[in-house]
Predict the structure.
Amino acid sequence: MNIYNLNDISGLGCNSAVTVGMFDGVHVGHRQMVSHLADKARQQGLKPVVLTFRNHPRSVLRPTEAMPLLTTFDERMELLERCGAECVVAMQFDERTAHLSACQFASRILVDRLGMKLLLLGYDNKFGSRQGDDFNFLPELGLTLGFTIHHDQPVKVEGIEVSSTKIRKALLDGNLQLANLMLGEPYSLTGTVVKGRHVGTALGFPTANVELTETSKLLPPDGVYAMSVEMDGKPFAAMGNLGGQPTFGLSQRTLEVNIIDFDRPLYGETIHVSFLKRLRDVMCFDSEEELKSQLNRDRQETLLALNH
């Protein structure tokens, strides 16, 4: 996959089929769009181009209302490549972009810069300044500038039309199963292993203390999760505690991951953690023995979750 900055697209060529969006999460609906874009581009001899933003438009339009994202920029690029995107153009959403109407954006960016001949829109996809709202005039502009507009159909999961907003809500509601179905794969994050208090080691469940440095990344609710951890290109079963450790009087939110049947030191290494199933709430136990018994049950449930 080729990735270009909008200001450096000399190698892009011309005559493209374009789809525009944030593509946060690169969920099953996004994957369908990438596939359909490739098909339409191939049929018309065009170059399929995904135009996305490095930052979420909301960070400019409503900067005081922070919105956690499903994917970082690097994660989006990796997922877009995996679902078959051939060419991605990334642009910074800024005040100047925010003031462009839909027709201005299409003319100045999509046609003049990307050579667009075909525009593929998602079922709920709109762009352009609300103040200069002329989105409905895009078909007329297409006749003038020589591009056609196509609309993709929504993808439904359990009768629900998939969107990044609905996935965020499912995650925040603790409905990990629905979120993962909409994403098309388990929700995941990447972090660096740092030294902890060795509480898990003392209990016979050594954990990797994963530093959560990406503040824009959405985290599921506190709880104990069945997980998969990728190490050296190989997946390992794991269980993790996201939140505090009330049994030991610790309230700071951390992610402690016990990787099953894995004992190599990981300090300083970056690991990729996938959330498979929410097992239970974070709980305060009366004794360490009671906690160990629960952890053994959690481990068995984790292994069952991975086998299914």
The first strand starts at residue 2 and ends at 5. The radius of gyration is 22 Å.
